Amino acid sequence: MKRFRYKAKNSEGRLVTGEVEASNPEHAAKLVRKQELVVISITAKPGVSLNFIKLFSERITGGDITNFTRQLATMINAGLPLTEALSILRTQSKSSVQRVVSQILADVEEGQSLSSSMARHHTVFSKTYIALVKSGEIGGVMDEVLVKLADDLEKEQEFRGKVKSAMIYPVIIVVGMIAVALIMVIFVIPRLTSIYDQFGADLPFSTKILVGFSDIMIKFWPLVLVLVGAAFYGLKVYKATEAGGKKIDEIIFKIPLIGELQRQIVLAELTRTLSLMIGSGVSIMESLTISAQVARNQIVAEALEDVTKLVEKGFPLAFAFSKHVEAFPFILSQMIAVGEETGKMDEVLAKVSHVFEVESEQKLKAVTAAIEPAILIVLGIGVAFMVISIIMPIYNLTTQI
């Protein structure tokens, strides 16, 4: 979509100027005429290159999508037409969201559905989001679907906020440790090394390791940065592969405390998403397919793909889930069986999701409680190693004198 400047005359014959967002000049002229204006000229507005800082500051976050959904749901429930609601949101949103809303509004005014216009922005709206909007359009319950979707996004934002808040303290401590260690290695150790050389001190093995590491960091720091960057890039590329992603996810699941926490978070998101989609009228097959595509764990994604195939062959959903004990706990297949018997699958999955969220919060507290003393122990060992490595040569010099 491009922005076009226009000149036009209103019903009173006065000159009016402005801007519209459209795919081509013909579309732009059509939008201007809808405002009961007579088009004089349409010119494309030249694009402005954005720097990286502006791109980062104007990126669309999960919170932006949550606010957009809640406001849209409120206005649709109040009886406003979709185009009017989108027009209001366009004026109230920040610039990055405003551009997306403008494009969606232009597509809707051309006669496209809301779901298809949102599908053009797949980096902003997830497949789950688009499927739910589409189900609301088909069932004529867009207002109900948007409210459910807004509630779900708010719960997801709240839960992720709790996880991030719990990890702030450990991250700050770790970053502080690394910063202090680098300062010691780059600035302090070289000065002490020159003193040791002047007196011809016999360096202990731990001091030699520290001095050697300091020399490498000072003399070959560009190579060190390149190697660290290459390692991170290689890990990212390996994780992007199917085999690599599965292997890394397997390793994460096996880490004490952290692995179980990760499993609970993935399962909470999965069951909440399935509950929302099934409750909004999306078929079970489509819900499973979309969940497999958006799952954040390769093991769970592959298990969901197999579950989809089994259900397609006619097997009960609970039986299909019970075949993958490596991904889904026994309680999930049990509760799904209850949902199949009662016909209240969405309600059962919502309750299971709540159970997983509570358990993940408890495990999160256990992880943070275990990380803090572990960090202090590592910090103590590191400080002790550096102190011994620095003081021992000085002590040897004083005893020689």
From TrEMBL:
Any stretches that span the bilayer, and where are they? 167-189, 209-233, 374-395
Query: Would you tell me the Gene Ontology cellular component terms?
Result: plasma membrane
Residue span(s) of domain Type II secretion system protein GspF: 68-190, 271-393
**Example GO biological process term?**
protein secretion by the type II secretion system
Which keywords fit this entry according to its UniProt record? Cell inner membrane, Cell membrane, Membrane, Transmembrane, Transmembrane helix
Which subcellular locations apply to this protein?
A: Cell inner membrane
Give the matching InterPro entries.
Answer: GspF/PilC, T2SS_GspF_dom, T2SS_GspF_sf
Q: What is this protein called?
A: Pilin biogenesis protein
